[in-house]
Amino acid sequence: MTVVLVTGGANGIGAAVARHFAAEGAKVVLADLDEAAGQEVAAEVGGRFVRTDVTRAEDNEAAVATAVREYGGLDVVHLNAGTGGAGGLDDFDLDRYRRTLAVNVDGTMFGLRAAVPALRAHGGGAIVVTASLAGIAPATFDPVYSASKHAIIGLVRSLAPACADSGITLNAVCPGFVETRMIGGLKDTLVANGLAVASPEEIAAAVATIAAGQGTGEAWALQAGTAPQRVEFPAVELSQV
């Protein structure tokens, strides 16, 4: 039996990932702030819901503990919770800036710190973090969001070797525009401007493929109607002082 934990699992990509793994026979724990939607998806997939603020280390630990207590261990973790909309230089919002970095960057780090010991105790496993194409290329429409997603990819690539020592793969999925609450009602406008908009189900399938693979420390770009493409980074290593 595969046990899967999904943060940001109540809606959008996270809910699609929960449904995808449950359809394959996995037991799923959903972690989210949205209790009503989270409970609904958990009931649909026969899983468990844990109210979780990913900006709190103890909430991440509680979500992992639920998976271990209810299902005996943990095999796959999808750190998906994310937010944006902090603006740029002219429309900067300090509270939104701090919230974006807290959810996207702190939430990833706290999730990793909570999940790795449980995966290690269960003999290894896979972690997939939701980054974004905005973490690979500039995103002038939301610079702070872009910065946070660049940071997530940096964490994935830098922490993967340490995770590999415990039999844990750590990778990032980097979607373009996805039909979720984050783009609101902009889908028609985006499509009219020639931009591809993926379904959450496409991203879920990619997450499952990445989790099942043997690679680690990789970022996978994904746009509507295309297979995931591994991002090639310059082969540069920082020397230790």
UniProtKB/TrEMBL annotation:
Keyword match Ribosomal protein: no
Pfam families assigned to the protein according to its UniProt record, in alphabetical order: adh_short
InterPro entries for the chain: KR_dom (IPR057326), NAD(P)-bd_dom_sf (IPR036291), Sc_DH/Rdtase_CS (IPR020904), SDR_fam (IPR002347)
CDD domains recorded: SDR_c
TM stretches of this protein: none
Ketoreductase domain ranges (all copies): 2-176
Nucleotide-binding as UniProt keyword: no
EC number from the UniProt entry: 1.-.-.-
Superkingdom: Bacteria
Keywords of this entry: Oxidoreductase
GO MF annotation, one: oxidoreductase activity
Family: Belongs to the short-chain dehydrogenases/reductases (SDR) family.
Full protein name: SDR family oxidoreductase
Upper lineage: Bacteria, Bacillati, Actinomycetota, Actinomycetes, Pseudonocardiales
